[in-house]
Amino acid sequence: KLATWKEKYEETNIKLQEAKQKIEEYRQKRESNQETSDLLDNELSQARRIAGKDDVKGNGIIITLKDNPDEVEGIISQEDLVELINELKLAGAEAISINDNRIVNMSDIVYTDCIMVNTKRVVSPYIIKVIGNQKYIESALTTKTVGYIDKHRSKGKDITIEKQNNIRILKYDGELKL
């Protein structure tokens, strides 16, 4: 009898160990799936942010460009806006908008009978919101004589720049076509 009970005890103990192993495997798979799911969610969120498909909020600067009709070269052109956007991208801007029109890689800034951004008409004053490192962006734009702001102010254009926290830039509402 004792040998039979010992044998049953060992069989039960083996089954218990197998059950513990399966539980551990399930726990690891669940954690792995959760980690994988979290990683994919983070990558999707980052891709949406880069593509401009999510509203973003952060620290940055606001640049205001106003037409100055009293000066010969005082009117803001689409070339001025394109140059500014390129300068901002080079300075590490994470998100940019012009008059609440989100700028993405596919954005167009053109002049027909007025300035159009993403097929929407924009007029002076042009309010450019930028999220990114305030120091880098400001120093890139305000470098004496060669910086965007100094260069355009010397032509009579009205430009102001201010640092601001909690800037909100709306998502790109157009269709992304490749």
Task: Describe the overall structure.
The chain starts with a helix and ends in a 9-residue tail after the last strand. The chain is rod-shaped, with a radius of gyration of 29 Å. Strands 3-2-7-1-8 form a five-stranded antiparallel β-sheet. A three-stranded antiparallel β-sheet has the order 4-5-6, covered by helices on one side. Helix content is 44%, strand content 25%. It has helices spanning 2-51, 78-90, 134-142, 148-153; strands spanning 56-66, 95-98, 101-103, 109-111, 115-117, 120-122, 126-131, 158-169. The chain contains four helices and eight strands, in the order αβαββββββααβ. The protein has 178 residues and is an alpha+beta fold. Strand 5 and strand 6 (120-122) form a beta hairpin.
Helix content: 40-55%
Uncertain parts: none
Could you tell me the number of beta strands?
8
Give me the number of helical elements: 4
Beta content comes to 25-35%
SSE run = HEHEEEEEEHHE
Write out the strand line-up for the largest beta sheet, numbering strands in chain order: 3-2-7-1-8
Instruction: Please tell me the overall pLDDT.
Output: 90
What class, by secondary structure content?
A: alpha+beta
Distance between the termini: 79 Å
Biggest sheet descriptor: 5 strands, antiparallel
Q: Calculate Rg over CA atoms.
A: 29 Å
**What is the molecular shape?**
rod-shaped
The gist of it:
With about 180 residues, this protein is of the alpha+beta class.
